[in-house]
Amino acid sequence: MKKVFISMPMRGRDKADIDYSFEKAKKIAASIIDDEVEFVNTIVEEKPPYNNGHEAAWYLGGAIQKLSGCDYVVGFRESYNYPGCDTERHVAINYGIPYIELQKEWIWSKEEKEKERKKWESECCGTAICNPKE
């Protein structure tokens, strides 16, 4: 039995989108790993013992503790946009834990992809990226 940690961004995402992404990632990982798999609960339930604006680092520390006990880490190529996921990716790679890299488009829901597309368009439209002939 292989233990698997799924690195998944949480901040700013709906619970339904997160659940959808976890289920898709689990199916893909189970099909890749040539053994029975146990998916580790990556959510840190405890609350930080302080409130200083750096609580995300405390949660990340708990996630890395869980990651350290796993045989594989599953993440996604675009992790650089999510500091916690990017750190988990670097920890896995630098400490020799096999990292299975998925494409975000494989595990994001259609609705979430559409939200991201609209956000991107609203941030870049009017620039040379959206209007290269101008």
Question: Could you characterize the architecture of this molecule?
Answer:
The chain is α/β, with parallel strands linked by helices and 134 residues long. The chain has one domain (2-109): 3-Layer(aba) Sandwich (Rossmann fold), CATH 3.40.50.450. The chain has five helices and four strands; from the N terminus they run βαβαβαβαα. The chain has helices at 15-32, 55-67, 83-94, 104-107, 110-124; strands spanning 2-6, 37-39, 72-76, 99-102. It has a four-stranded parallel beta sheet with strand order 2-1-3-4, with helices on both faces. α3 (83-94) links the parallel β3 (72-76) and β4. α2 runs parallel beside α3 (83-94). It is globular. The mean pLDDT is 87.
Write the layout of secondary structure elements.
Elements lengths: L1 E5 L8 H18 L4 E3 L15 H13 L4 E5 L6 H12 L4 E4 L1 H4 L2 H15 L10
Any idea of the CATH topology? Rossmann fold
Low-confidence stretches at least 5 residues in length (pLDDT < 50)?
none
Helix content: 40-55%
Mean pLDDT: 87
Indicate the overall shape.
globular
Q: Helix- and strand-based class?
A: alpha/beta
**Count of the domains:** 1
Order of the strands making up the biggest sheet? 2-1-3-4
N-to-C terminal Cα separation, in Å? 57 Å
Q: How many helices does DSSP assign? A: 5
Largest sheet: 4 strands, parallel
Tell me the radius of gyration: 17 Å
What's the CATH first level?
A: Alpha Beta
CATH A-level architecture: 3-Layer(aba) Sandwich
Number of separate strands: 4
